[in-house]
Write a structure and sequence with these properties.
2 domains, binds zinc ion, alpha/beta, metal-binding, TIM Barrel, binds glutamine, 5-methyltetrahydropteroyltriglutamate-homocysteine S-methyltransferase activity, 771 residues
């Protein structure tokens, strides 16, 4: 082993890497657009890393290895892919003359080429961060094809900061991988563990030689139930750390396990030759006395400060948890439960928020202070007693602050009865809707948004700056809506949308228009690659002071005789894409949002809107990582959707939209939403979902997407007909709708128009064959 320094008493599992002003976004997008070269990109990346190191040192992380080396140009899983050389065969030879995957190869995997789709992207555990999915097969070769993690460590060290290099651990890497195109049907990526481990071992030796005293291997997959049997995972963990533990000259090893309790894997890691184990002691529980006994001799890195939400830590509660660990005679240090990459950087930047609200919040920088305070508590409880009392006082004052609990909202929730969650029988609704809408077979529609053009964004920016008045902005948006309606008329769509030009974001728009929320100015959180979102803060009881979408929907409907869909974001998605209050069950918060949406639906109906779509693209995202927790989640989430929509008249057609194609696991829940029509993503998976729908006997309207909107590629009419042909074989034609996979917001007009024209043409052809 290299240096034998103790694990730092205070640390973070990870830190935001996009930069305080999204400098990384600007640099990599500039690099992609050929505005800066690789050297300038490298310089920008180094500046961000050193900026982080300086900032974290200033905030008190001044021991060796306390600063997490979690910087990434794009994604931590992609980093692992490039370090171990796991390039899918479909990309051909991406290595350069030195046998290395350089920055261009790296971005090729992330962004694809003209011929090759990029690596698939999917959500990182129960966060809204997306990682790139490794594709592993029997043919995959593994070798050290990048040493970026070593170079980053050396650069920081040369500048006076000994960081703690970070790698996604080998077991998590393989558990998150999918089988490559070349792999046989029953192939399990974990079967390649023996070939992956030597490459990790080599990296560890190099890091040790470079002077790293600690390495962090991140193994979040160990806290989530997997399809692979537990015994197999236990064996993989034991074997992995046996091999890595034996790597020559390696740093000391910290294995981190964010996002929940380790359960069956704790004894396995306790028995492994690693020097420190991080446990999520915020979301997961404090391990039992028996489990703690197994950890003797290792440092326990207690993740007591939540890395995934933004409320200040209940320092008294955390101190109590730390005391239990300390009393068990363990070497305990303090950290966050997860990387703080899931929260914004610094709440002091949000000067537009009230001082009161700000005092309730801890972004990444504030979490550092919390960790440092708790580390001080472990050494000398008296030293942090004042800070702990202060935190308790703020939490107590929050509980009684104006707007946190509104009696009228609570009374309304308490008075709900089962009838409020149920509509009439579908057969009755269907008859009423057929009569009210008189739609052709295979009705065509879109998911809601039309391209957000530069003009739309610039108008919004000018309105926000006060350069144009609110009325001028409204006029511009109405002109846009008129264009979108005329286009759909011309294309001959059956059910129209207004195009959502007035919405900056489908959640933030509602957050800005409901009480109980606030939005941030600089609170960007990386969503994937260079993309960031600014989640809203849901801190109080939710109420709707006035109608939100009605004026727009009514105006759009006035432009056409065809039905215009009212467009709302559902309660689960509003929660999933916001930072949500932690002082009551999520289901209660969801129902409050549900009631506000229910009132909005009533107002839309009164304004003559006959079809209302309530989007729930995030329904799958919040699904708990442990199977045992899933039924309760599905119960409250489905109920909140039903509460939102069940006030609608029989003749009002309720649509919903979901954004993913893995249907199997939650198909009962989707059925439980009881929407009249459900649109879902399907084009990329060539309509695989229709099998699930058929097997399940899904009985209501369904629109499997026939146009993949995630790329500028235009699907031809023949391709769309073929997809529709597959769909009508599995789903009765009378249930089938025709629509793209998702909203068109990120697309340009040229490809959108052509694609939609093909979609309508193909529908007409398939329709003609039906009769
Ligand atoms: N109605 C939204 C849109 O069309 C839905 C977006 C989504 O599913 N993410 O943009
Ligand atoms: Zn979608």
């Amino acid at each position: 082993m290299s240096k034998n320094t103790a694990f730092p008493s205070a640390s973070l599992l990870g830190y935001p890497r996009i930069g305080r002003r999204r400098e990384l976004k600007k640099a990599i997008e500039g690099f992609w657009a050929n505005k800066i070269d690789a050297t300038e990109l490298d310089a920008a990346a180094k500046e961000i890393q050193l900026g982080t190191a300086r900032r974290l040192t200033e905030l008190g992380l001044n021991e060796a290895a306390a600063i997490p080396g979690t910087f990434s140009y794009y994604d931590q899983v992609l980093d692992a892919i490039t370090h171990i050389g796991a390039v899918p065969a479909r990309f051909g030879e991406l290595r350069n003359a030195d046998g290395q995957l350089d920055i261009n190869a790296y971005f090729t995997l992330a962004r694809g080429t003209v011929e090759q789709q990029p690596l698939e992207m999917t959500k990182w555990f129960d966060t809204n961060y997306h990682y790139l999915v490794p594709e592993i097969g029997p043919e995959t070769t593994f070798s050290l094809t990048s040493t970026r993690v070593v170079e980053q460590f050396e650069y920081a060290l040369a500048n006076g900061f000994e960081t703690r290099p970070y790698l996604v651990g080998p077991v998590t890497f393989l558990l998150l991988s999918k089988a490559s195109d070349e792999a046989p049907a029953d192939f399990n990526p974990l079967s390649r563990l023996e070939e992956v481990l030597p490459v990790y071992a080599e990296l560890l030796s190099r890091l040790g030689a470079a002077g790293a005293s600690w390495i962090q291997l991140d193994e979040p997959a160990l806290v989530a139930d997997q399809d692979v049997p537990v015994a197999e995972i236990q064996a993989a963990v034991a074997r992995s750390y046996e091999v890595l533990g034996a790597a020559a000259g390696r740093p000391q090893i910290l294995v981190s396990t964010p996002f929940g309790a380790l359960s069956e894997l704790l004894p396995t890691l306790a028995g492994a030759p690693i020097e420190a184990l991080h446990i999520d002691a915020f979301k997961g529980a404090v391990p039992s006395a028996e489990e703690l006994a197994l950890l003797a001799g290792k440092t326990v890195v207690a993740g007591v400060v939540d890395g995934h939400n933004i409320w200040i830590n209940d320092l008294a509660e955390s101190a109590a948890r730390l005391d239990i660990l300390k009393a068990a005679g363990l070497a305990v240090t303090v950290s966050t439960s997860t990387s703080t990459q899931h929260v914004p950087q610094d709440v002091t930047e949000e000067t537009q928020l009230s001082e009161e609200l700000r005092s309730w919040l801890a972004f990444a920088d504030q979490k550092v202070t919390e960790v440092v305070t708790l580390a001080a508590h472990l050494v000398d409880p008296a030293s942090s007693a004042v800070a702990i009392c202060e935190a308790s006082a703020v939490i107590a004052s929050r509980a009684v602050a104006a707007g946190v609990k509104r009696p009228e909202v609570r009374a309304r929730l308490a008075a709900l009865t089962p009838a409020d969650f149920n509509r009439s029988n579908f057969a009755i609704r269907e008859a009423a809707q057929d009569e009210a809408l008189a739609l052709p077979p295979l009705p065509t529609t879109t998911i809601g948004s039309f391209p957000q053009t530069g003009e739309i964004r610039s108008a919004r920016a000018r309105a926000n700056k006060g350069a144009i008045t609110a009325d001028e902005y409204t006029t511009l948006m109405k002109e846009e809506i008129k264009r979108v309606v005329e286009l759909q008329e011309e294309l001959d769509f059956d059910v129209l949308v207004h195009g959502e030009p007035e919405r900056n974001d489908m959640v933030q728009y509602f957050a800005e228009n409901l009480e109980g929320f606030n939005v941030t100015v600089h609170g960007w959180v990386q969503s994937y690659g260079s993309r960031c979102t600014r989640p809203s803060i849901l801190w109080g009881d939710v109420t709707r002071e006035k109608a939100i979408t009605v004026e727009w929907a009514e105006y759009a409907q006035s432009l056409t005789n065809k039905p215009m869909k009212g467009m709302l974001t559902g309660p689960v998605t509003i929660l999933a894409w916001s930072f949500v209050r932690d002082d009551q069950p999520l289901g209660d918060t969801a129902n409050q949002v549900g009631l506000a949406l229910r009132d909005e639906i009533a107002d839309l109906e009164a304004a003559g809107i006959k079809i209302i779509q309530v989007d729930e693209p995030a329904l799958r995202e919040l699904l708990p990582l442990r199977r045992a927790d899933q039924p309760a989640y599905l119960d409250w989430s489905v109920n909140s959707f039903r509460l939102s929509t069940a006030g609608a008249a029989d003749a009002t057609q309720i649509h919903t939209h979901l954004c993913y194609s893995e249907f199997g696991v939650i198909i009962d829940a989707i059925d439980g939403l009881d929407a009249d029509v459900t649109s879902i993503e399907a084009a990329r998976s060539r309509m695989e979902v229709v099998n699930d729908l058929e097997n399940h006997g899904f009985g209501r309207g369904v629109g499997p997407g026939v146009y993949d909107i995630h790329s500028p590629r235009v699907p031809g009419a023949a391709e769309v007909s073929e997809l529709l042909g597959t769909a009508v074989k599995h789903v009765p034609a009378r249930q089938l709708w025709v629509n793209p996979d998702c909203g068109l917001k990120t697309r340009g007009y040229a490809e959108t128009e052509e694609s939609l024209r093909n979609l309508v043409q193909a529908t007409k052809e398939v329709r003609a064959q039906l009769v």
